[in-house]
Prior knowledge:
- By secondary structure, this protein is of the alpha+beta class.
- Helices cover 29% and strands 21% of the residues.
- The chain binds 2'-deoxyuridine and zinc ion.
- The site of 2'-deoxyuridine (DUR) has 15 residues, from helix 2.
- This is Cytidine deaminase.
- Pfam families: dCMP_cyt_deam_1.
Amino acid sequence: MFSNQDLTLKERDLISKAREAKDKAYAPYSKFKVGAAVLTKEGKIYTGCNIENASFGLTVCAERVAIFKALSEGERRIETLAVIADVDEPVSPCGACRQVILELAKGAKILLSNKDGSQVIKTTPEELLPYGFTL
Ligand SMILES: O=c1ccn([C@H]2C[C@H](O)[C@@H](CO)O2)c(=O)[nH]1
Ligand SMILES: [Zn+2]
């Protein structure tokens, strides 16, 4: 476990971009706002927030929005993914996102932050989804 001051400036910046994205979350049902930010190997940043729907199963998580935004702009090399939510302990991506991260953010550094960055977990796609399914 790390805290903000143990992180590089780049890592801190990515977490603060994720925090800004969190404020744009559309989460009228759960009221649980999540933000994510992807940094590509070329240095571009794509952000995402969770977007819910009255048909609950259609909800898309912040992580997937950020990753899909990057991929849809042609990006294929994700260096770091940061995720943040207003929680005391680092936010934990759902199973669906873990599967997507394993395939689309292969080799990336994953930063999972609590609300104020006082607790940050640095992990990997493989650690998040051991024995994950791939083709
Ligand atoms: O890592 C996570 C965990 C949850 N959510 C969203 C999905 C839903 O909108 C709300 C409550 O689960 O939070 C995310 O976006 N990312
Ligand atoms: Zn998810």
